[in-house]
Amino acid sequence: MDYAREFAHAQMDRRPRKRPRITTWDTPQSSKAQSGLYNGQEVGNVTSLGPSRVHLEHSSHFVKGLVHRGSPPWRDDDKDGHYVFELGENLTPRYKILRKIGEGTFGQVLECWDREMREMVAIKIVRSIKKYRDAAMIEVDVLEQLGRHNRHGYGCVQMHSWFDYRNHICIVFEMLGPSLFDFLRKNNYRSFPVDLVREIGRQVLECVAFMHDLRLVHTDLKPENILFISSEYVKIPDSKGTFREGKRLPKSCAIKVIDFGSTAHGNQVHNYIVSTRHYRAPEVILGLGWSYPCDLWSVGCILAELCSGEALFQTHENLEHLAMMERVLGPIPDHMLRRADRHAEKYIRRGRLNWPEGATSRESIKSVMKLPRLQHVDHSAGDLIDLLQGLLQHDPSMRITAREALRHPFFTRNRSSLGIARSVCMSLD
Questions:
Q1: Where is the signal peptide (predicted)?
Q2: Is 256 annotated as a binding residue?
């Protein structure tokens, strides 16, 4: 594959090299307007990702009838390397900043008005720090590859274009709705209906299967990185017939997966730490190396969370996390414990997990003991439990693949209920 040939596997383990800068906007060294590249935007075709040259000789230069307005005065970044902006000003002459819709360790996400395409877009502005810029260029490469192969509409977010503005990599995306986590939070962390879980799970697994077919591992699947396409919802009245405490349901079940900045090749086993804590697979914690199966573990944790309203493993400490896994899923296989790397050896004693002896507090022991077995996940029918048991196998070699999961009876049996889920989501007014 072209992408696999471009990056050698050894480079991926050290995090891939920085891609050459393609577009430079508004450099502070000169007060004169500068010529440059305006990536993928010359002809107004947002699906065209190839570089295209537009010579900007003057701030009022026309590009296909579009008047380029000026950029705001140069400002220094904040102490953490975040881009400093004011609402209503421009981000390059093309985009007008309307509001901030997200922030993370990578940088910020702004909702902007695209003057050329006359539509709202989400622009991810990455911090002006080398490691985040490098990760952003990995994400650009992955998004371009996914865009080239995604002819069937598998649920990956669409990148419109990208550019480099004042030392910040900026990636322009289609505008989407709230994340699954935001929707849960607005619902006071109440569970999703099982048919909605089925439809969301199917789409996430289709995206994962698509990526794995391209030999890519997402590595950071979580409810925050799965967004509904639409922000519209309806409220269902509670048992008393009132809407005040009623549950929200999305009008559309359609979702898209975002955040490909940590994506890696699955052609070999990697050893660095990946995944957000609550969705991290046991082989990652034990230092056994990871590949495609770590994504499936994350999907299992997500589905369990949607069914219960709470994260399956709510912890911030490795030994407690492993103890929770054993409490919910049964003992971790001996061969995995024996192979734990030097960083994880302290969690094992005499061939078993050093629990509860190694617990940091009584509260930690209590938090593990109160966890239910997997069979007690709310809203779970037999098919769902069986699917979760396949996704949450401790041994990654025994974990089902994304393609196998899509053929599971949870998705294939009672297809009428799947139709009900879609009609509930898409036809409510």
A1: none
A2: no
